Amino acid sequence: MEAAILELLAARAATSTICPSEAARAVGGGTWRNLMKPARRAARRLVDAGEVQITQGGSVVDPSTAKGPIRIRKVR
Fold it and tell me: Are 4 and 23 in contact (CB under 8 A)?
């Protein structure tokens, strides 16, 4: 899942973000909904590794407290 997130971000402009659902779809195809929690967990691991940031409303948020829709972007 981490690889899918990083690949999706690499294919976008440096200022772009992705939704965890995009990574879930890339990995799971038709069963992507079952992969939403794993996608969010993978994003958190990438935050811990210093590779991405999680945002809500354009602001960086703490992934451990983020509720609701999130976006993932490269570290700026």
Answer: yes
Specify whether the CB–CB gap between 45 and 4 falls below 8 A: no
Across 21-31, average pLDDT: 96
Contact 19, 59 (CB under 8 A): no
Return the amino acid letter for 70: I
How is residue 51 annotated by DSSP? S
Helices 2-10 and 36-48, axial angle in degrees (round to 10)? 70
Within 13 Å and on the Cβ side, how many CA atoms surround 55? 17
Q: What is the pLDDT of residue 59?
A: 96
pTM (two decimals): 0.94
